[in-house]
Amino acid sequence: MSAIERGRLRDTAPVRLRPGELATLFVIGAIGGLIGDAGHVQSGTTVYLDDATPFVWKSALWFPVLVGLATASIGELRLWLGPPRPGYDARVGIAAIASVLAIYAVTALVHDQAEVPGTTLIVMLAILVACWLGGGTPAIICGVAAAAVGPLAEVIIVELDLAMYSPLADSLFGVALWLPALYFAFGVVVARLAELLVARRAS
Amino acid sequence: MSAIERGRLRDTAPVRLRPGELATLFVIGAIGGLIGDAGHVQSGTTVYLDDATPFVWKSALWFPVLVGLATASIGELRLWLGPPRPGYDARVGIAAIASVLAIYAVTALVHDQAEVPGTTLIVMLAILVACWLGGGTPAIICGVAAAAVGPLAEVIIVELDLAMYSPLADSLFGVALWLPALYFAFGVVVARLAELLVARRAS
Amino acid sequence: MSAIERGRLRDTAPVRLRPGELATLFVIGAIGGLIGDAGHVQSGTTVYLDDATPFVWKSALWFPVLVGLATASIGELRLWLGPPRPGYDARVGIAAIASVLAIYAVTALVHDQAEVPGTTLIVMLAILVACWLGGGTPAIICGVAAAAVGPLAEVIIVELDLAMYSPLADSLFGVALWLPALYFAFGVVVARLAELLVARRAS
Q1: Mutation site, B28, B46, B92, B106, interface A, largest A CB count within 10 A
Q2: Helices C19-43 and B115-133 meet at what angle, rounded to 10?
Q3: Tens digit of each residue's pLDDT (9 = 90 or more) over C137-165
Q4: Nearest-neighbour CA in chain C from B120: distance (Å)
Q5: Cβ of A98 and C128 within 8 Å?
Q6: Are B190 and B78 in contact (CB under 8 A)?
Q7: For the whole model, what pTM was predicted?
């Protein structure tokens, strides 16, 4: 392979996240998962049924680990889907994280309210986050992938009797009707974080 | 009339919405009305007292029809008030619709809470939407017109015993104190949608 | 002192708020405090225990006075911390005020809900406001100063038996756990208002 061919390959091969960036996404996801999950557990939105594993704050240890892995995976998916947008702004990243944690908290606060307005609110907030952060098709794919895989994993967790959703918020195969919207916002936010991590290299 | 006179007239005559654009606004309003109203009915914010007309989801058929007509009318009002702003961005339109549906959902969720903080929240959210979407005097006029006509129409609906607001949310002549703020946000959002529909012609 | 020295002094001396601008901040703070406090009192988030002073709406007279003085003081602090950002936009100021009053209302609405998601929501909303309004270190200092002094003053008010927080929202030395986040948003917003007031002079 000539140097020119290697150069071309380098131009078209997707950018990859570096180990430190993957670790950053893992930690952000794990801490965010702990905060959001504590709100779900304390409000009774969800209940852990199995105490075979150690607990961290209000979560079974495996929960923040799974969220951290999902966060790193969606970050990689985002870069695999196309070149990231340039431009680094730490404030955008902080606000993106805050927005999905705010939605997470709202789900806990509305879980025992009427399902239609509660779900409508979460869906609309997720759409607002997606419109705000933008990112086009790659961001939407990350959001849809998270909205599909996340709730499916939680349905399996419920089926395995490891945890359950409140009877007031379990109408989607045992999980909450608003759960895909929460995961959609999560996926869109993580896609933006991956872009920002790459853009930070040049800043 | 000479060609020059006709040209001048064309320059000053207001842009009008085309039939397809009016139909688009009607459909957006009708669907949005159905979603918001389902939240109101399910949460007990409002109750239909008359079942003489068919129901669609949780709404009497005339409700989404009225909201659809109001949406198309406010769109026309916006263009009659002055030339629309240029620039088409589908994301702005989607986010504008999502923002008013989010506020609609919040009204259902707070209808049985203390009236001052609930109303304060809705008013402030409506102000935030107006500041965000901008549009100056025409948008404000559309918002104020909706805030006046919409609640008045609902007061008449309540007086006709077709529907009622929860006793916890009926302190404004039988309708909710936050209702004008919700309609204000609705009017401002529809004004923006009308502008976007015209701007889309050139895009 | 030569004219050149006076010129240099003028270049480095901090901009000060004029009496009318301080009065504007005082009035904005006092009215905002009255609206937010009415929500707290009506929802039972807080209770006044002392009726030795006259009441305005639902607040003891000293409350809006204190908030007004705090607003003017933080405005002065902002200018003392560095030159204000240029650019006047009334909509930013209105939206900034609306955002902190919205958060204030949300605190009243969630005060009797589970503490973790309620506090998470308020903290994230405060972070979102700070990211949106920006302003760098001076704004952050104003926010942190407000987050320290405000709750401390309220702890003293509670200790003096002038008022109390609901037993459901008094876990931070007798005041609510979300109170520093609300004051942080307040401080950041007032910092922006001070900048806008100075920028308005040139507009």
Answers
A1: B106
A2: 130
A3: 999 999 999 999 999 999 999 999 999 99
A4: 6
A5: yes
A6: yes
A7: 0.95
